[in-house]
Structures are given as structure tokens and as C-alpha cells.
Amino acid sequence: MSTTPAAASDQAANPFTLVYGGAITRNEAGKVNIHPVTYRLGDLDIAANVYTPAGYDAGRTYPAIVVAHPNGGVKEQVAGLYAQRLAEHGYITITADAAYQGGSGGLPRSVDKPMFRIEDIHGMADFISRYPGVDAQRLGLFGICGGGGYSLAAAKTDKRFKSLATLSMFNSGRVRRNGYQDSQLATIQDRLGQASRARAQEAAGGELLYSGDANLTDAQIAALPFDLYRQGYAYYWKTHAHPGSTFKYTTSSLLDLMRWDATDQIDLIDVPLLMLAGSKADSLYMTKDAFPKATGATDKTLFLIDGATHIETYWVPKYVDTAMGQLTPFFARTLATGPA
Q1: Which residues lie below 8 Å from residue 271, measured CB to CB, with a gap of 6+?
Q2: Within-domain flag for 96
Q3: Range of the domain at 254
Q4: Is residue 4 part of a domain?
Q5: 238-256 pLDDT per residue, tens
Q6: Taking a C-beta distance cutoff of 8 angstroms, is the pair 280, 309 a contact?
Q7: Running DSSP on this structure, what letter comes out for residue 270?
Q8: pTM as predicted
Q9: Neighbouring C-alpha atoms within 13 Å toward the C-beta of 17
Q10: Count of domains forming the chain
Q11: Burial (0-12, 13-18, 19+ Cβ within 10 Å), 314
């Protein structure tokens, strides 16, 4: 993958450390503004960015959208891009770093458990529902990659969300359990044993073990068998790198991840549902598996972004525009349009 100044920016050069194309560099009257915030979720400090639409007036009311970031991602990458683009259409949006990750609190670092990621989404809803100008009755949810899988889980029971959209949905439990494209079915028990031993070692005060933390050469990246991983390394480590973003997670997290599945009981989702994915994404099988299981959502659409791979939906302008071409009318219809 290659990039241009229009496609990404250097986090060190951006005052808000944003790394996506067209990112806000300063707050200006009459334009979309960004507001870094910190709030408490349980006993942790959560770092988030709130985007307000052009001409924002706290005395008026606006619909709001919670944006959940991908696995290993942070709010300054693709989640911020879509949060900013949605704010351009009149929404107050929020995207927060997951607990134990990025700029948010929590020790040990890089714990990645579904219960925490789902609680992150509930926590964003808690905060943004009380933000000046937000109409809590017009609250939407948008999840990207792993955030999409966790958004399916959150929306099962959190009826504050009036509609739900996902982009390039990634079922973290299925992949950690079965391997990508179900390629590691034969080693499930061995990997569960490794995770169990890692937890025992932690409990005994031993070294904390991590998975997914690899410093690969360009040749090793090129040899990876899946587009998602090849292009993912380029996106997260090169073109849209951010110091808060990492692939690694505690190996003991697999005890929780491997017994979880994003599609469990998603028949409980009874609000409008839009699922977006690239037509050439090798992760598409996860969206296609989940969509028919959401039987409680009578208003639902599966839309394929023609020609896009998984990672390309994060940043390639024409694919982002196509995704926004679906998200904009979907949220306009299900949350009502603009400020009131």
C-alpha cells in the first residue's frame, strides 16, 4: 500500500495526533470542531474525542452517534475519520480509546476482553447522552472491524441505540477461536492451553505474556496469507501509524475471547441495522454470517462496497465516500436529520 498527504497525516504534526486524511488541525468557528475529553468508566479514566458539527450551539438539540474503533486501533485513526465525516452531516459524535488501550487507563496494558470492549460502548453512550445539545432519544451506534462485532453485542441489550451500522465487521471471538477464515480449527485446544498457562503465570506474579506482537520485515508482511493482515500491517505500522495503536493483547485475554462470539443472540437487535463490507474483503464471510442471524431487525440492509478490501474501507477516499453514501441516509432516516 502507498499513501499520499491527502490519505494520512503525521500524528506528531497534528495537534490532536490524528492520522487520517483531511483531519482537523485546529478548531474554527463555523466548522466541525474536535473536543478531547476524559471521563470515568468504573475506576478507569477513558480518553475520547467528541466531534461537534459546524455551527454547533449547545442550546439546540442534535442526534449523536457512538463510533467504536477496530481491534488494536485508536480513536485517532479510522474511527476518528468516520466520526469527523458524520459530524459534517450534523451529528455530535464520540469515539473513545478502549479501556486498557491507547490513551485510556487500565493495567496491565493491552488487555483485550469482550466484556471490556462492550462496556466501552455503553460508557460512550453514557457520556455522550449527557453532552450539551445531545438528544439522547436520537442516539446511533457505528462499529468498525472489531468494534463492529462488539457493537452487535452492545446493541442486543442497550436500547438507547435507535439504529446500528457496522463496517468491515470482525468477529473477534470466532477469529481468536478458529483462526482467520477458520484456518486454525485443529489447534484450538492447544491454544486454550497456552492461554490458561499464561493466566496461571500472571496469577503467580510471573511475566505477563502477549500475543499478536510481532515486528515483521516487509518480506514477511508480503508473505502473509491474507489481505487483511498484509494491508493491516501497512495501515497500522506505516501509513496511519499512531503510538497508541498496537496489535498486541495479553495472551490470557484469549480465555475470554475464545469462548465469545459476536453473533450470539443478535436476534435481540430490534432496531434498524446496516452492515457494510468490501466486496473483495477476505473478512466478508463474518458479515455474511452475522447478517441473517439478526432476525429481530426487520429493517436491515447488507451493502457491499464494490472493489474494496477490509483495510481499504478505512482510508481509500472513494471507498470511504461510498460508505458515507450509505451511512448518511441511513442515520438521517433512523435518527432524523441535523440539529433541531
Answers
A1: 155, 159, 161, 162, 163, 164, 297, 299, 334
A2: yes
A3: 11-335
A4: no
A5: 999 999 998 899 999 999 9
A6: yes
A7: -
A8: 0.95
A9: 14
A10: 1
A11: buried
